[in-house]
Amino acid sequence: MNRANTKVGFVSLGCPKNLVDSEVMMGILSREGYELTPHAAEAEILVVNTCSFIESAQKESVDTILEMAEHKKFGAAKKLIVAGCLVERYRNQILEQVPEVDAVVGTGEVERIIEAVEGDLKVLPAEPPAFLYHDLTPRIVTTPKHAAYIKIAEGCDHPCSFCIIPQLRGKFRSRRFESVVKEAENLAAAGAREVTLIGQDTTSYGEDLGLRDGLAKLLSRLAEINELAWVRFLYAYPNRVTQGLLDALAAHPRLVKYMDMPLQHASRNVLARMKRGANGDAFLKLLERIRKTIPGVSLRTSFIVGFPGETEADFEELCDFVRAAKLDWMGVFEYSDVDNAGSFPLDGKVDAETIAGRRDKLMAIQKKISRENLKRFKGQVVRALVEGESKENPLVWEARLEGMAPEIDGKLYLTDVELPGGEIATMGDMVRVEVEKADAYDLIGRVVEIEPRPVSKLQPAPIPAEALTRIATGAPLRVLG
Ligand code: SF4
């Protein structure tokens, strides 16, 4: 196989942590001379990086594999490789049941993608995943270059009974402190204005390295990178949120006043069955401490409704919690059985109709709260990061406030990006926006000032020239999830 003339296409499913794995596999193949293509029809090699967190995600992964298999039957594709979390569950079944699949690569085998592509590897024996990328690992950043994710840790040691991620991603393991800092500097030198730190549980960062308050220390160090406008982190675990972390967030203007902290439920009974502990009152006290330490902070969480044993009273307790908590952003998952999750054998299963009804009710409560919360921005001049043309409506541009995380929260739509003097805001600019309208989840405004870009003093990382060109064409076929 002549690498330089061989095109590879990636489909990346699931969460941003899986996206970083896709970007690492794309980086490795690009470094080895392969060309990346965003068009499935012209790819000789197709890689599907799968998700299998819950039933619906698994179904999406299987459907996508079968869709890509069609390209092998009738298109240019000569090889189909399946990677990611579905492999950790069904590595041999995938090969047996989908004959078009040539090889499978587990979540801990990302750096062996080249062997799969070149036929030296079909399937490896299942072992607890241990892989962790670092700042010298080739990686093709597929998000707009002004906003990149950094995976600071992998795996998880929490026993949440509804979750199989520890089985799919292995034990919790942190990346080295200096490696994360170096990667953030490289990304900033390459034009990133915002970096978002991710992991299954970012608040446990450094515990396995003997670091106390590791996330607070890491954030404070990243806050010194002048080329960055914003440093954000997602996936805080409630009982790992320390005062040191909150103080660090409050102390540095470059650390966004934003916290994403999945609570999953508020009823003591349900949280106990989820093996997560705590209760609604404890969470309200925590939210109060966060808001007291970080004035104006935006808070995001996610809940699961319909967990086995969730009574009407438990659900009403959750509704009352949401009314009292007045969160800024909220996601609600419908519980779905996963046969190797701790919750699978539990009694008290809730029927699908009731679960869907509870999800709708909780979202309706939050919609009112979100509309109320966003009203405070009307008539204000706020700082925002310009994201670019809106996918929904190319006539308007999109931006985000520091209280809005990429892809999961509301947006700020820009009706005008040109200043009276003719200067025009572009992707990655930090701007001041006068907010003219607030909806249930989004804001609308016009740019009134464009901040000058900082002059970078950082030395860009030594990325080989041809890899740079490949970056230009290298987006995944699509990112689903
Ligand atoms: S903390 Fe998150 S990833 Fe870890 S077991 Fe719980 S739900 Fe799963």
Short overview:
It contains 13 helices and 19 strands.
Output the keywords.
481 residues; Rossmann fold; pyruvate-formate lyase- activating enzyme; OB fold (Dihydrolipoamide Acetyltransferase, E2P); five-stranded mixed beta barrel; 19 strands
Q: Roughly how many Å is the radius of gyration?
A: 23 Å
Estimate the helix proportion, in percent.
25-40%
* Total strands: 19
SS content category: alpha/beta
Question: What's the oligomerization state?
Answer: single chain
Q: Work out the count of structural domains.
A: 3
Poorly predicted runs are 463-477
Q: Considering the protein shown, what is the CATH homologous superfamily of the largest domain? A: tm_1862 like domain
Instruction: Indicate the CATH architecture of the largest domain.
Output: Alpha-Beta Horseshoe
CATH fold-level assignment of the largest domain? pyruvate-formate lyase- activating enzyme
Number of helices in the DSSP assignment: 13
How would you state the average pLDDT, rounded?
A: 93
